[in-house]
Amino acid sequence: MDNKPLVSVLMPAYNQAEYIKDALDSLLNQTYRNWEVAVVDDGSPDNVAEIVKPYAEKDSRIRFYHTKNGGVSCARNFAASVTSGEYIIPLDADDIFKPDYIEKCITAFQKNPELDVVYCQWKMFGAVHKTPELEYKGYRDLLIYNSIFCSAMYRRSDFNRIGGYDTEIPYGFEDWEFWIRLICDNSKVYQIPKQLFLYRIKSSSRSTGSKEEDKQATTHKYIFRKHMDLYMQQFPDYISVLQQNAYFRHRNEKWKRRSLVSRLWYAIKGTI
Questions:
Q1: Which residues contact 41 (CB under 8 A, 6 or more apart)?
Q2: CA atoms within 13 A on the CB side of 258
Q3: pLDDT for 23-45, tens place per residue?
Q4: Of 20, 14, 161, nearest in space to 80 by CA
Q5: Which long-range contacts (CB under 8 A, 24 or more apart) does 221-225 make?
Q6: What is the reported pTM?
Q7: Other beta carbons less than 10 A from residue 222's beta carbon
Q8: What residues does 63 pair with on adjacent strands?
Q9: pLDDT tens digits for 134-159?
């Protein structure tokens, strides 16, 4: 394995004792053998340590760490700090890699050294079976919505260059914000045309309702404000779009306040 690059797997493990064996077994089943994984017990209240330690005792590639709860960004950054692979790939403790995922990622990097990020097609399982399509279509589109899941492979040099994951981000979307900083207009992103990553959806993680929407809105605002110069550069007509949106919202509210007779009159005049 000396001539093959080392791959560091970052695995936060908060309250995932029920599922982490599946994640670790999926690493042990990888056709690519030169990997290491840092499992970070992020102040977890469950017995994840009891499950992981026997794995670590049997395989030196698996190392277990306990930290105070700081969230997924802190856990991934810590995992990166105690590993040394040329390439990095996160794997959450409730998700699964198909056996040839890491090998295909490394092969893609070796065939095309200009690549910055490699990922694959994915499949949701558990409480949800319908999987939305994720396809990177360019940097501008990435700024609007995340098209790369968290378990994509990238170079450690790029991780160091951008300073890792943002530990101040309010509610999730840390992987999206990470890609916004790691990738640029000229970046090369390759998606392996095969489902090699299984993303588990648990009933408890299917957050819905106004509170969750408020959290998402808060994080979106955080990302937009943090990268406002970037958004203004990529979308120079951003302000005019907002102004038009506000104008039409005002007209719509004004229209709804009119009486039925008034609406009919303005419709006849053609000045709705």
A1: 13, 14, 48, 49, 52, 64, 65, 66, 67
A2: 15
A3: 999 999 999 999 999 999 988 88
A4: 161
A5: 222/169, 222/170, 223/169, 223/173, 223/176, 223/177, 223/180
A6: 0.85
A7: 17
A8: 38
A9: 999 999 999 988 999 999 999 999 99
